[in-house]
Amino acid sequence: MPGSRPVRWVAAVPMAALALATIYPLVFTTNVAMKTRREYVLDRFSPADSFSLDNVVKAWTSVGMSRYFLNSVVVVACSVALLLLFGSMAGFALGRLRFRGSSALFLGILAALFVPFQVIMVPLARTMADTGLIDTYPGLVLAYVAQFLPFTIFLLTTYYASVPSEIVDAARIDGNSVYGVYWRIMLPIGAPALLSVGVLNALFCWNDVLVALLMMPSAEHRTLMVGVTSLRGQYSDDIPTFAAGVLIAAVPVLVVYLFLQRQIADGVTAGSTKG
């Protein structure tokens, strides 16, 4: 089309600037993590003299990042598994089944999306303390499930509602019960949406600091992000070690985006059209 090239440049320039602004912090953090303390003090912006992983090894072994990493993996894996299980069941029920009060229930779930966590933070902490779940893995997992379940149900309900009704009717004619339709038909069909929601919830749980700090006060049970936050105070005079901890926390997220970016995009748009 005539004049399309200038329009492309107008869109490309700000997008390129945004991409550079996003990539630069990662490059800067990686460069600092490769430096010695002396190199950082002399010139924090210059390239590292040698590509050394000594700070990363120190953060992983001596500082305890390996323990924090394992804590995060366990908590995130359990939280995402429960979120996908309960979210897919509720999404199937609200999206495909018709029962009394389903619309009101769905509106209540939508309303829960607008409640900030800070509003329920104190009641949640007191409830967890009364039930003995503070500073335990199940307590943090349940807190994440309670926080992110409305979001999960909303997306999966929207997706399952877009599935053609003929597929469900054919499955029922073949003799499948409601549970059979859910297990044999809807779960395989919903794989793109489940993958997308699972990745998003994993990132939410992985990057969380507030809930983990509230539910896991002891140093032994810290998650990775809480551990990285604590490094800033413990190693205020050793910024390369702190940067190495930040790099350890960022690498899993980058790997997920690198290998699952197409699946994430497909999952997000999978329920946008019918048929």
UniProtKB/TrEMBL annotation:
Residues 69-260 form the ABC transmembrane type-1 domain. It is found in: Cell membrane. The keyword Transport applies. The chain crosses the membrane at residues 7-27, 68-92, 104-125, 137-160, 181-204, 239-260. Keywords: Cell membrane, Membrane, Transmembrane, Transmembrane helix, Transport. Its main location: membrane. It is a multi-pass membrane protein. It comes from the Bacteria. The keyword Transmembrane applies. It holds the Pfam family BPD_transp_1. Belongs to the binding-protein-dependent transport system permease family. This is Carbohydrate ABC transporter permease. It comes from Lentzea sokolovensis.
